[in-house]
Design brief:
Length: 139
Amino acid sequence: METTTDLATTILNSIRQDLSGLRDKVTHLEGMVTSIDARCTELALAVGDGLDTQHDELPVGDELDAMHDELRGAVTRLDTRIDRLSTRLIEGSVRATAGHHETQQCLIRLMAFVDAQGDLEDRVERCELDVSDLKQRAL
């Protein structure tokens, strides 16, 4: 029983650590999105205001497509990792629930056994009968 509980605790701690790492990566991706958004805003302002800037410095066409593809790939990878983590959480929860149920069943059987063996009144009465039986045999 303790091994099941220890395993469930270990799994849940591992999942908690994975979630922490995942949060850091999400924060990093949010920073990347913010950076890309800022770059896109700069580009929109430059085009919208008709500023005469060096077009070689601004991302255009293929560069924007590459940035978009990179972001889409990062989001897809993040979705995949979140799905795997969700699956692991569900599996851990199922294992913990099964272990808890098994522990409850063992406790119920143990309590029934103790109740059957532990009635002091019945034991004292049996001892008294045994003592009186032994006295009759001895006399």
